[in-house]
Write a structure and sequence with these properties.
With 258 residues, the protein is of the alpha+beta class. The protein folds into 2 domains: 24-127, Beta-grasp domain (Ubiquitin-like (UB roll)); 130-255, Alpha-helical ferredoxin (Fumarate Reductase Iron-sulfur Protein, Chain B, domain 2, Orthogonal Bundle), CATH 1.10.1060.10. Helices cover 34% and strands 14% of the residues. The protein is built from 9 helices and 7 strands, in the order αββαβββββααααααα. It has helices spanning 3-21, 57-68, 130-138, 158-162, 181-185, 192-202, 210-217, 231-235, 242-255; strands at residues 25-33, 43-51, 87-90, 93-96, 111-114, 121-123, 126-127. It has a 5-stranded mixed β-sheet with strand order 2-1-5-3-4, covered by helices on one side. Strands 6-7 form a two-stranded antiparallel ribbon. α6 packs antiparallel against α7. The radius of gyration is 23 Å and the shape is elongated.
Length: 258
């Protein structure tokens, strides 16, 4: 085979691969819409979009808002999985829209997008996050020192840091809390995210308010409401072992060892 033929075949293969890589597909985005100024009931609306399968659900929502229907309302900020503002139910599971690729959620079928559950829907995909953040504030998510403010850096060993390292990754997206059936049925439950953030400080060697946080969570709406369904762990976009953290807080309440 001549060199020219080999180069021609190689070029054709590259062209075919490039064409395949940028192939676009028709996607049906089925979005749950709600506008309290228009109707007391939510409705499902379908949008047909031409998308690259490697694009994200967030890209599809942008396309709807910017090109098809400017009234669509949703939250988003960094668009890179750090801010946690675009948590929503996608095909029945809590996910971050900015981290969910179309190709990974069977784009041949309609992709359903709806607000996270358990919090009041304000409009379309936007929910009232205040109850969620109030539970977060209630567990005192900050370092507390009983004496005078330290004048030097409070050093930690690698082992001490490792004790709570996993729960430092929380981005307060509410995916875990709003995947919890206990929270759905009783909004008074602190919820997984608040307990995770309490864990982060209860087991921090620099903190001196672990007992206070444990007493806050030793409540009918605290850690004992957890039924270990593992929905929270499955939903966490940061890979935090949420259920494990909750069980460690329960154990600390019983043993008073932390």
């Amino acid at each position: 085979m001549s060199t020219a033929t080999v180069e021609s075949n190689h070029s054709a293969a590259l062209d075919a691969a490039e064409s395949s890589a940028f192939a676009r597909i028709t996607v049906t985005m089925r979005v749950r819409r709600f506008n309290p100024e228009v109707s007391a009931e939510a409705t499902w609306v379908d949008y047909q979009l031409e998308m690259d399968p490697k694009e994200r659900v967030l890209d599809a929502l942008h396309k709807i808002k910017w090109e098809l229907d400017g009234t669509l309302t949703f939250r988003r900020s960094c668009a890179h999985g750090i801010c946690g503002s675009d948590a929503m139910r996608i095909n029945g599971r809590n996910r971050l829209a900015c981290k969910t690729l179309l190709k990974d959620i069977n784009p041949e079928k309609p992709i359903t997008v709806e607000p996270i559950k358990g919090l009041t829907v304000l409009k379309d995909l936007v929910v009232d996050m205040e109850p969620f953040f109030q539970a977060y504030r209630d567990v005192m998510p900050f370092l507390i020192t009983k004496g005078n403010e330290p004048t030097r850096e409070r050093l930690q060993s690698a082992e001490e840091r490792e004790r709570f390292d996993d729960t430092t990754k929380c981005i307060l997206c509410a995916a875990c809390t709003t995947s919890c059936p206990v929270f759905w049925n009783d909004g008074q439950y602190f919820g997984p995210a608040a307990i995770v953030n309490a864990h982060r400080f209860i087991f921090d060697s620099r903190d001196e308010a672990a007992e206070q946080r444990l007493e806050i969570l030793n409540d009918r709406d605290g850690v004992w409401r957890c039924r270990t369904t593992f929905n929270c762990t499955d939903a966490c976009p940061r890979g935090i072992e949420v259920t494990k953290a909750i069980q460690e807080v329960k154990r600390a309440l019983i043993t008073r060892r932390f």
